[in-house]
Structures are given as C-alpha cells and as structure tokens.
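Title: Comparing notes on inverse folding

I've been comparing how different people in this forum approach sequence design from structure. To keep things fair, I'm posting one structure and asking everyone to reply with a full sequence. Here's the target:
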C-alpha cells in the first residue's frame, strides 16, 4: 500500500520533511540536494507544532494498517485462489519507508506482490514517485525475486465514490433541512506545481473525474467547486486555493459549506490541521458554518472498495491482462525524467 505517509510521532517530523523536500518527483527544486535539508530544518519547528496540535503525530499509518488488514481479510474471501493475502505499508517519506518494507518482504519470503497506490488519482509526483522508488530498490536487488503488478489509479471506482458520498451526506445532515440544499460542497485536493501540471500530469483531470462521479452519485443535490490546498514555496501552483475560496464564498454571502477531502483517503495533517484548524476556523470567523466530510479512515464501505479493486485486478491478471494498466504505460508528453520510462518498462515486465 503505497502512500506519502506522515510522521507517526512529532520527533519524526524533521526526517519526514527532509525526505519530502528531497524528492524531485514531488517538488522539483533547484540545487535540491543542498536546498532540501535547509528547507526541512527551517520548517521543522512550525510543522512539529502542527503535529502537536493534531494530537502528537499523523494517524495515516494507523489507518493504512486498519485498511490493509480489513482489505486482506476480505480479499481471502473474494479471491481465494491467491490467498492468503497480506498488506504491507510502504511510505515515501515516513516510516515504514519503501526500503524498510522491502527488507520485510524479503525476510517474509514473499514472491508475488501488488504495488497498490493509496492515492486514488494518479500523479507522477505521488504514485509515480512511489513507483520510481520501488523500481530503484528493485534494480538494486533489494526486493529479492518478487514478481510485481500495479494498481495505479481508482479515482472513479464506485465503492470509493460511494464511501465519499456517504461521508458528504453525513456532513450535510448537520445543516437544517430547510437550507441544506443551499450548502456549497467545496472539494479540496492537494495542489500541484504548475510545472508538473504543464508537463501533462493526469492528476487534475483524474481528481475532476472523481468529483464528477461523486456529484452524479449525489444527484447533483448541491452546488460545488473543486479547489486546491497545501501549496508551498513561491512558484505557481494549481488554484484556486482552498483558503481563498472559502473567503470568496463568505464575501458572496454563502453561509454553509461542506469541505470534502477528495484526494486523501486517511486523515493527516492536511485534513486535521489545514482544513479543520486553519481554513474552517477562518471561514467561521467570516460567518460561514463549515462542516468537513470525514476522511475515509476505517469506513467499511471504503475497505470493501479496496478489496474489490484488488480482487478485480487479480481476476484481470488471471484472465491474461498484463501487470500494469494501459494508461500507466504512457509517459507525460513533457516528461524529461528517464527513470519514469525505465520504471514503466520494468513494471510492465512484472518487475524483472
Ligand atoms: Fe510523468 Fe515522467 S513526469 S511520466
């Protein structure tokens, strides 16, 4: 289960930031090797405080483990031919890091694995970065004789959409019935630098597709917008920014908003701090009543969706489909990172 991860304890914050700012697939920086440790050091005290404020660490590992265990159990029933199944977590920037998980897979004698992204929508800076990292470890012989296949995106899977829609409905029910339909649904996804968007990254399109599917499931009961959060640094990022959107809606006299995290499946700092403690608080000060749709966390509907996605992948493989999706094979038209091409070819051969 591939994801960016988050520091489980406050003390792990610095290492997490250093890993994050060192990843040129995520945040391309000039002089990255020198600049990344410097930025990480500078930002650590502030981000440590944020992790303190949300309870002393990120819950993403806890929820990913809960999701993984639930999924593996269901998968044993849904696809007994390949049982027993076991979920491993491989984070890109926090423990357990890919290299740690690779060691564990080897120690456990695992011979067959699915690289299952936990980012519903594909971006080269998130899922692509995790796959590049796995590829590098595989090339270095750290993964043993594992045979790989990849689940690279599932942003419109009906089970995922249903789980999000149910959490929106729960948030909407907090508003009085008489004015509920006037509530604005503000979908918020992690932003991307425009340099990534402009090289042809599919993320913006795929997040939009998720939003469209959720709105269809909701019968277009409410007006909505998709906005973008968590930009860092001075360069141009995908907008409109979530915080500005809330202020704009307040200016226009909107009184009720449901904030919907659409590209995160578990709570982490971007939901618990940025959405709940920053944006929602600020909007309330501007007279807007804001409720956030819960993250999927331990939602049984979502865990069932993960198992369904994995089971379908295994059925497709048994039916002779290749180890990767057709879509994964296509590089961004503006891609200049040679690793992307090698990685795609490697996974298409089953990691050999
Ligand atoms: Fe998208 Fe390389 S950046 S394939």
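Reply #1:
Here's my take.
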């Amino acid at each position: 289960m591939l994801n960016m991860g988050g520091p489980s304890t406050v003390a792990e914050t610095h290492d997490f930031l250093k890993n994050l700012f060192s990843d040129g697939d995520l945040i391309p920086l000039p002089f990255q090797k020198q600049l990344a440790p410097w930025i990480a050091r500078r930002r650590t005290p502030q981000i440590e405080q944020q992790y303190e404020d949300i309870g002393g660490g990120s819950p993403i590992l806890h929820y990913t483990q809960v999701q993984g265990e639930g999924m593996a159990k269901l998968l044993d029933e849904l696809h007994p031919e390949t049982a027993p199944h076991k979920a491993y977590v491989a984070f890109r920037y926090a423990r357990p890091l890919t290299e740690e998980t690779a060691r564990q897979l080897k120690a456990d004698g695992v011979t067959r694995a699915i690289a299952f992204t936990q980012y519903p929508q594909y971006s080269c800076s998130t899922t692509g970065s995790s796959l590049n990292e796995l590829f590098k470890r595989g090339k270095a012989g750290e993964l043993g004789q594992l045979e790989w296949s990849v689940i690279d995106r599932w942003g419109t899977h009906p089970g995922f959409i249903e789980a999000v829609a149910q959490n929106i409905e729960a948030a909407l029910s907090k508003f009085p019935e008489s004015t509920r339909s006037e509530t604005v649904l503000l979908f918020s996804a992690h932003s991307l630098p425009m340099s990534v968007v402009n090289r042809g990254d599919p993320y913006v399109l795929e997040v939009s597709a998720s939003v469209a599917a959720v709105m269809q499931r909701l019968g277009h009961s409410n007006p909505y917008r998709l906005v973008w959060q968590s930009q860092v640094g001075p360069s141009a990022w995908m907008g409109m920014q979530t915080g500005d959107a809330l202020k704009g809606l307040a200016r226009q006299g909107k009184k009720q908003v449901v904030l919907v995290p659409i590209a995160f499946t578990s709570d982490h700092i971007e939901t618990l701090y940025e959405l709940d403690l920053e944006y929602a608080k600020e909007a309330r000060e501007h007279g807007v009543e804001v409720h956030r749709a819960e993250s999927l966390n331990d939602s049984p509907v979502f865990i069932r969706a993960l198992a369904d996605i994995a089971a379908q992948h295994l059925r497709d493989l048994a039916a002779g489909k290749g180890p990767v999706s057709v879509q994964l094979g296509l590089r961004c038209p503006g891609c200049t990172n040679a690793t992307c091409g090698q990685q795609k070819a490697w996974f298409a051969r089953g990691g050999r």
